[in-house]
């Protein structure tokens, strides 16, 4: 009996000891895990500092090398002038430089003339149909729809439609959840299969009843006064056929690329589109946020949905195509800086270059289309400014191949001169973007303008030439479903009856 009692005590003592050791091991593991997470987080927080300081160091090193090798640059210029094609090349380069400089000064003059149109009162606002096409957006579409419903646009004048374009993830589930929350304010539709964004929008246009149609991407969040400000120009100007919204980056706090792209977006919209708006010729109303007068839209709707390029149906560039067709009718296309939408952008290189290829192909296609009417009498008012901006954009596309050839030649013959002069050019040219963004938003964040220019120059220089030679290709490129989203969807579908 005594032996059994001792054994029992030993057993329970050993059990307690093992339990304590297990608890201690778990505690140590959790502490190590927290320490590792903290270390990774600290490293990630320091990464922007490393990139920005590295960028500044690199650019000023380039400037110093240009100064250091000034005699080598003079010798290179002399050799180029003396060569067979060198002098003609220099003449063309000089003409292009003065043309681009002149256009920039003209744009700067127009920018200071731009003013957004003020919002009109509720009784003057027209009826409005907001269309949200969605494909593999997950919960983001829920947030988009709720932000639209929260707008200060009169409820009795706003119709919200969303079309799920045959998504393969949980997008339809979140659309249904939004329907439950918003009730009759939201009408939801589902395409039987994925047919592309253009077809989803077309269905929305056919179903809509508003005097004005607004399109919003399903990964975008609008501010409370966005819709009111976006629609107001149609009331002030009867010749206004479309209005472009002001697109900012939503996920610019999450990763490095969005931080860079945020500067690029501000330049593209708040400078370039402000300039175009003064001329009444915004070249592209963005898919993230755009508005169209019903009469101007329906006048070209069938041409738009049946558009082809080199004999194949067009499945990209639906926003630029619609803008082109409305401009061709003689309508004005304006920009509203006070109509802001926040949209998601790629956070990785692969997603970014695919998005830029799609945009590049669309630019090539629609520039060719624009050439058919821009030099004709498509509008009763002055067309000189519009034509000048068109030539500037076209020159950028055409010169991408000569620039590429010259770049490789320069690298092969004088690599150090190439890199130093390129870095100095980036320092000078990007200073305008940095100052523009800093003046309007934040000087501390404006340094990302330099980082993006360096990144684009050395890793995305091939986009435009590649887009030209592959302009005939179809495909959205960035509408795939990641493995992570697939796993999340199937987990949700397993436990939620509404997802089925």
Structural class: alpha/beta
What is the overall pLDDT average? 89
Q: DSSP helix count?
A: 19
Radius of gyration: 28 Å
Q: How many β-strands, per DSSP?
A: 10
Neighbour order of strands in the largest sheet: 3-2-1-4-7-6-10-5
CATH topology of the domain at 128-397: Spore Coat Polysaccharide Biosynthesis Protein SpsA, Chain A
Subunit arrangement of the protein:
single chain
In the CATH scheme, the class of the domain at 128-397 would be: Alpha Beta
Query: What share of residues are in beta strands?
Result: 5-15%
Low-confidence stretches: 482-500
Task: Specify the CATH architecture of the domain at 128-397.
Answer: Alpha-Beta Complex
What is the H-and-E element order? HHHEHEHEHEEHEHEHHEEHEHHHHHHHH
Compute the separation of the termini in Å. 64 Å
Q: Could you walk me through the main structural features you see in this protein, from its secondary elements to its overall organization?
A:
The chain has 19 helices and ten strands. The chain is globular, with a radius of gyration of 28 Å. Residues 482-500 have low confidence and may be disordered. The N and C termini lie far apart (64 Å). Helix 14 (400-413) crosses helix 15 (415-440). With 500 residues, it is an alpha/beta fold. The chain has a domain at 128-397: Spore Coat Polysaccharide Biosynthesis Protein SpsA, Chain A (Alpha-Beta Complex). It has helices spanning 2-68, 70-82, 86-111, 140-149, 171-182, 197-207, 226-236, 256-278, 294-298, 301-305, 318-328, 349-370, 384-398, 400-413, 415-440, 443-446, 448-459, 463-469, 483-495, and strands spanning 128-134, 158-164, 186-190, 212-216, 220-222, 240-249, 289-293, 308-309, 312-313, 332-343. The protein has an eight-stranded mixed β-sheet with strand order 3-2-1-4-7-6-10-5, with helices on both faces. A two-stranded antiparallel ribbon has the order 8-9. Helices cover 61% and strands 12% of the residues.
């Amino acid at each position: 009996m005594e032996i059994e009692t001792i054994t029992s005590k030993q057993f329970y003592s050993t059990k307690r000891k093992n339990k304590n050791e297990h608890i201690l091991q778990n505690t140590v593991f959790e502490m190590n895990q927290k320490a590792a997470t903290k270390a990774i987080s600290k490293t990630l927080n320091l990464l922007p500092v490393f990139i920005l300081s590295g960028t500044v160091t690199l650019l000023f090193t380039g400037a110093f090398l240009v100064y250091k090798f000034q005699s080598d640059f003079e010798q290179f210029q002399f050799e180029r002038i003396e060569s067979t094609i060198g002098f003609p090349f220099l003449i063309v380069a000089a003409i292009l430089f003065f043309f681009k400089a002149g256009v920039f000064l003209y744009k700067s003059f127009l920018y200071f003339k731009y003013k957004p149109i003020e919002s009109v009162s509720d009784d003057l606002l027209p009826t409005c149909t907001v269309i949200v096409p969605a494909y593999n957006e997950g919960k983001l579409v829920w947030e988009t729809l709720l932000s639209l419903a929260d707008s200060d646009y009169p409820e009795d004048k706003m119709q919200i439609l969303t079309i799920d374009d045959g998504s393969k993830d949980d997008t339809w589930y979140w659309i249904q959840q939004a329907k439950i929350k918003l009730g009759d304010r939201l009408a939801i539709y589902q395409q039987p299969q994925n047919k592309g964004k253009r077809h989803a929008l077309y269905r929305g246009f056919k179903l809509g009843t508003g005097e004005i149609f607004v399109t919003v991407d399903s990964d975008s969040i609008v501010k409370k006064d966005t819709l009111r400000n976006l629609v107001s120009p149609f009331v002030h100007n009867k010749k206004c056929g479309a209005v472009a919204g002001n697109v900012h980056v939503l996920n610019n706090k999450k990763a490095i690329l969005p931080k860079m792209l945020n500067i690029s977006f501000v330049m593209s919209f708040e400078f370039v589109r402000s300039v175009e708006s003064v001329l009444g010729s915004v070249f592209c109303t963005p898919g993230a946020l755009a508005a169209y007068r019903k009469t101007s839209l329906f006048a070209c709707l069938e041409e738009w949905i049946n558009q082809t390029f080199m004999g194949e149906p067009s499945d990209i560039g639906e926003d630029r195509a619609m803008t082109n067709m409305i401009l061709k009718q003689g309508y004005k296309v304006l920009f509203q800086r006070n109509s802001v939408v926040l949209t998601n952008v790629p956070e990785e290189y692969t997603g970014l270059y695919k998005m830029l290829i799609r945009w590049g192909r669309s630019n090539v296609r629609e520039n060719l289309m624009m050439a058919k009417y821009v030099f004709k009498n498509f509008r009763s008012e002055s067309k000189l400014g519009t034509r000048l901006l068109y030539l500037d954009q076209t020159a950028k596309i055409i010169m991408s191949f000569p620039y590429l050839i010259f770049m490789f030649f320069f690298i092969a013959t004088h690599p150090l001169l190439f890199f130093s002069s390129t870095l100095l050019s980036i320092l000078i040219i990007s200073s305008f973007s940095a100052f523009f963004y800093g003046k309007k938003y934040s000087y501390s964040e404006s340094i990302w303008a330099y980082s993006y220019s360096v990144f684009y120059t050395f890793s995305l220089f091939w986009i435009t030439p590649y887009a030209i030679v592959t302009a005939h290709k179809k495909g959205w490129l960035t509408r795939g479903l990641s493995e992570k989203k697939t796993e999340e969807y199937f987990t949700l579908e397993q436990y939620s009856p509404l997802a089925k």
